[in-house]
């Protein structure tokens, strides 16, 4: 079981995040138009999963904006922003922010958090998703992961972008 922190306090996560070199776990999420979103939708492309608790926090919203700015236009790369926010809230955020290069998907009715080892097991945020980045190559192999040690801080964007060769 992995750990992260919330304002310095340890928070358990239900399992371990996918290992580098493993095949990306299958998932079925809900898109902003209520359609199913699966990992197979992105076969043959680099897939950057930006996983976070909720768009209703400044840090989460910033991560969506920054990954859209920095990775949204990379060749053969998809940025998929995943939280347990309802698809309606995700769509409203993307429309209000004018975000077009990245995509959003909701884990509100899936086992994504458990399957990816990113669901918070305790703390006031129990049940939400830990701030995590998972990158898979076009063959579906996990090539990079980053479990952010403090939920209230943003991911290391530079390290992610270096990994993607940007």
UniProtKB/TrEMBL annotation:
Which family does the record assign? Answer: Belongs to the peroxiredoxin family. Tpx subfamily.
Please name the top-level EC class of this enzyme: oxidoreductase
Q: Which GO terms fall under molecular function for this chain's record? A: thioredoxin peroxidase activity
What is catalysed by this protein?
Answer: a hydroperoxide + [thioredoxin]-dithiol = an alcohol + [thioredoxin]-disulfide + H2O
The record's keywords, sorted A to Z, are: Antioxidant, Disulfide bond, Oxidoreductase, Peroxidase, Redox-active center
Q: Which Pfam families match?
A: Redoxin (PF08534)
Q: Does the keyword Cytoplasm feature in the UniProt annotation?
A: no
Q: How does it assemble?
A: Homodimer.
Which HAMAP family does the entry link to? Tpx
Supply the InterPro entries for this chain: Redoxin (IPR013740), Thioredoxin-like_sf (IPR036249), Thioredoxin_domain (IPR013766), TPX (IPR002065), Tpx_Peroxidase_subfamily (IPR050455)
Q: What is the lineage of its organism?
A: Bacteria, Bacillati, Actinomycetota, Actinomycetes, Micrococcales
The protein, known as? Thiol peroxidase
Q: Which CDD domains match?
A: PRX_Atyp2cys
Q: What EC number(s) are associated with this protein in UniProt?
A: 1.11.1.24
The catalytic residues are: 60
- Domain Thioredoxin residues, every copy: 18-166
Q: What does this protein do?
A: Thiol-specific peroxidase that catalyzes the reduction of hydrogen peroxide and organic hydroperoxides to water and alcohols, respectively. Plays a role in cell protection against oxidative stress by detoxifying peroxides.
């Amino acid at each position: 079981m992995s750990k992260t922190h919330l304002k310095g306090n340890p928070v358990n996560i239900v399992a371990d995040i996918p290992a580098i070199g493993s095949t990306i776990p299958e998932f079925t999420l809900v898109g902003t138009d209520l359609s199913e979103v699966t990992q197979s939708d992105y076969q043959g492309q680099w897939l950057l999963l930006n996983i976070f608790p909720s768009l209703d926090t400044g840090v989460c919203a910033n991560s969506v904006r920054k990954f859209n700015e920095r990775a949204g236009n990379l060749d053969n790369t998809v940025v998929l922003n995943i939280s347990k926010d309802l698809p309606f809230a995700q769509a409203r955020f993307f429309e209000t922010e004018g975000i077009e290069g990245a995509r959003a998907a909701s884990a509100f009715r899936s086992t994504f958090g458990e399957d990816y080892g990113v669901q918070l097991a305790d703390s006031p945020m129990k049940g939400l998703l830990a701030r995590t980045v998972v990158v898979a190559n076009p063959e579906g192999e996990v090539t990079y992961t980053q479990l952010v040690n403090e939920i209230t801080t943003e991911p290391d964007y530079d390290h992610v972008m270096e990994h993607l060769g940007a």
